Amino acid sequence: MQTKTILLNDIDYITRNDKPVIRLFGTDPESNQNIIAYDNSFVPYMYVLAYDLDECLNQLRELGLDNLELENKIDIGVEKEFIKIILKHPQEVPKIRDSIRDLSEVKEIREYDIPFYRRYLIDKQITPRNIIKLNGHIIERDIYGDINIDENVLLFKMEEEPVDTGKTITRNKILSFDIEVYNAEGMPDAESDPIIMMSLSGNYGFNRVLSTKKSEKEFVETLDSEEEMLKRFVEIIKEENPDLLVGYNSDNFDLPYIKKRADVLKVKLNLGIDNSPIKFMKRGFNNAGIIKGRVHVDLYLLIRQYMRLERYTLERVYEEMFDEEKIDVPGDKIYQYWDSDDERLEELFDYSMDDAVSTTKIGDKITPLTIAQSRLVGQPLFDIARMTTGQMIEWYLMLKAYEKNNIVPNKPSANEYNERRMSKKNEGGYVKEPEKGLFEHIAYLDFKSLYPTIIIAQNISPDTFTTGEGLDEDDYYVCPENGYKFLKQPKGFIPSIIGNILDERQKIKKLMKEEKVPEQKKAYDFEQQGLKRLANSMYGVYGYSRFRWYKKECGAAITAWGREYIQNAMKKSEKYGFKPIYADTDGFYATYIGELK
Question: What is the pTM of this model?
């Protein structure tokens, strides 16, 4: 038995001998060697809630489903007995679900739509970007002989459960990439318009522009053809072996264009750790560029989440973040600069290099927060970089549901979703329009984490919502305005989780204050920011129509209590000589009109 530790970067599964095999992609924390670890012991499963347990078991066995177990799970606060159906391959899950959906004794099918690799992370309680301890043995590459994996990649067969050490490293080796294309006809067409420059920049001092034209600039490397340029692009990425490969709008432009040009020129773009080519997967309305084992992050998507700007060009974002202008060349003039063979060509080299350098600087600033969110939510960084905050919250709750033996609610059906979407919107936070005039002696008063605090204090959760029937008035909290009631005990699923988030944030903020090492201090800061974002966004998803734990009454109660809290605070301030002049949701401005001491 051998032991290996990896910094877990990515995960997927392949099929070998009709069995699913999980692959963990990581790097040795010390040598940075790429490691692919294989685990063929994990199998998919789903749950069935039955009308009559024995009859349902008989019906399932008649369909040839023999690997059945009984499990008690908590379903929105109520313990129920479920039938666990254990299968052989993830591809069976949708087929079996469709086969059993209409059985007379099947009341509900649950947890059938959790992707296999995500289920593995949840069940094994291992966290992306953490250091994972693996026990097993090194395997010869001819065992997986149909995959032409590079010699310098170590293959490892797991024989025991992976162990999450809870540790990580502050290293964040970023390599950005950007391309310039010939566009004499306007919008470039990858079928016919070549790539003329490929720029790469690392946050560790690496800077390179690949091109088929020569330059005296030291960062320019000249290749004989576009084909050779594409091959060199692959070589550099493999040689540099970054933790993150980042681009700006690379999901929609750079990677698809690079792939198309490679196809046209018959160049193999084997960029993956397993030597696989670039692939694309649907994520929301867009395609996401996947490079197996290398975490590709499109910064454009993150910027759209983190910033509110009138335009999201690289130039505008860079100016906003660093208060300086980057080199710019008009997009419709790029082909003219390329054809000029004079100082404009040199300007184009500088522009191309600056695109990659700017992308790296942006990535260096914002990806640590995304990494912290990945570790917090427990899902791969590639996926987290393409999730909305609501999706992150849902996956975080699914992780915690497993830990607390809660079964995950299903996504709404099409009818349920439409009903939720068409229902009347809840009233929002209290707003007092600003009073006209100039004021002095202004004070600003706000509630710290108002909505998360209300959720905890009033125990607002789908599993604590009650009619109050048969209960004493002391057993529940009554919401102002709408009269919704929530049990005081036991602690609700979501309030308990938010409480843990806030407690953890305070611990991390304390560690951050005590920390002397700048890099670790910065890592703690990103971690507490991630926790803050998660806690503050939790209330909003109660009313999100696609949310698994949707409960409109919960959302309405939170804002109702919030309005009461802030209006009471404003009244109290008046007793101390303040006059509120503007309020919005969780805070208000007041001018002091009493006698100053």
Answer: 0.92
